[in-house]
Structure formats: structure tokens, C-alpha cells
Amino acid sequence: MQICSVCSEQTPKYRCPACKIRYCSVGCYKRHKDTCLPIQQPAPNIPEAKAALSTKPWSVEDLLHDDDIIDKVPLQKLELLGQSKELRDVLCNPHLRQLLRSIDSASSKEDGVKAAMQEPLFVEFADQCLKIVENQEKTRISDESDEW
Fold this sequence. Notes:
Elements: E1 14-15, E2 22-23, H1 26-33, H2 47-52, H3 60-63, H4 75-83, H5 85-91, H6 94-105, H7 109-116, H8 120-147
Antiparallel strand pairs: 1-2
Helix pairs in contact: 4-8, 5-8, 6-7
């Protein structure tokens, strides 16, 4: 059984996010934080990390894995999202912005989106995005068929 690293009396319930020691209470946390020595993360020695530091511009393809290509939205359509006044109006809602931040910070983006889809506001946002992208697709297809 583990014991608190600060008081050495209780079973620890918490872990310090900076140095990862375990402690049992707010009091122990307050005593610990004055002497906390954060663990230094070693710099990753990964070629991808070095490539990310280069000044070469990135593309949408750089962000997607092969499995994601089927769901890829072309850059032209993404730009339409940025030009939409209706979408900008929806994005003014602070609750929606918080939902988007929670998805962005989630360890599993898929689970984050599933949870957000329970919120009518997020569903409205997603529908607005799809409407913009799909309407453009329908317009492009009808323009191409008119050429024939």
C-alpha cells in the first residue's frame, strides 16, 4: 500500500502534475508545492519533431494519416468555412468555444466529438459546417454537369 509522499501518514489520492509525487490532501499539496521540483521532459529526438521546426509550410495532407484521407475536406472548402458569416455568428457563443477547446485538448478527439454531439449547440455548429461544405459540393457538381 502506498503512503503520502509529504506526510507519510495517509493513503495518497492525488498526484502532483509537475513532479508526479503522490499526496493525500490539499494541506499536503500546499506544503509540497513550495519545494516541488518539476520533472524535466527530455526533448524528443524524433525526425518529425525536427521537421515541425522547419519553416516549410504545412499542408492538410501532413496532418492526416492514410486512414483519414476518405474524410478529408479540400482546402478550398475549408476556406469557405472561414468566409461564412453564419458560422462566425455561431462561433461567437462562449459555450461553443469552450466545447471546441475541450475537443481540442481531449486525448481522444473522437470521444471528445461524441460527447460534444450531445450538446444541441455543437450539433448546430456541425450542421452549419456541413451545410457550407456540402452546398459547395452540390454547386460544383451541378456546374460540371451543365458543361456536358
